């Protein structure tokens, strides 16, 4: 851990955020960090987040539901309209620009 190499004080047992575990993988890093933020929000700041504004990635919301950061409160998911519109437009653009066999007939329908 980077923290243990600094100074002369003995470092207590802690979850080091500088060294992300290889077993967790980088793909789960975003979800794990957000879940940890939800868990620490109440003890550190006295705040409970009731809603999560999501970007279409369901893994973060799933991890929050599994972790149950607040015993008697279920966090609600709100989809960001900007992300939904952008993803929709990107999918439409992908459909219309594909020139593979069989795709031209679908393209003419649009």
From TrEMBL:
Protein's name in the database: Mutator-like transposase domain-containing protein
Organism taxonomic ancestry: Eukaryota, Metazoa, Ecdysozoa, Arthropoda, Hexapoda
Mutator-like transposase domain: residues covered: 8-108
Listed InterPro entries: Mutator_transp_dom
Domain of life: Eukaryota
């Amino acid at each position: 851990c980077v923290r243990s190499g600094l100074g002369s004080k003995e470092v207590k047992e802690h979850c080091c955020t500088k060294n992300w575990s290889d077993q967790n993988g980088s793909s789960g890093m975003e979800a794990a960090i957000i879940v940890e933020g939800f868990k620490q929000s109440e003890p550190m700041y006295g705040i409970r987040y009731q809603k999560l504004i999501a970007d279409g990635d369901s893994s973060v919301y799933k991890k929050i539901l599994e972790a149950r950061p607040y015993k008697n409160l279920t966090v609600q998911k709100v989809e960001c309209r900007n992300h939904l519109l952008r993803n929709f437009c990107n999918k439409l653009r992908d459909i219309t620009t594909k020139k593979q066999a069989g795709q031209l007939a679908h393209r003419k329908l649009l």
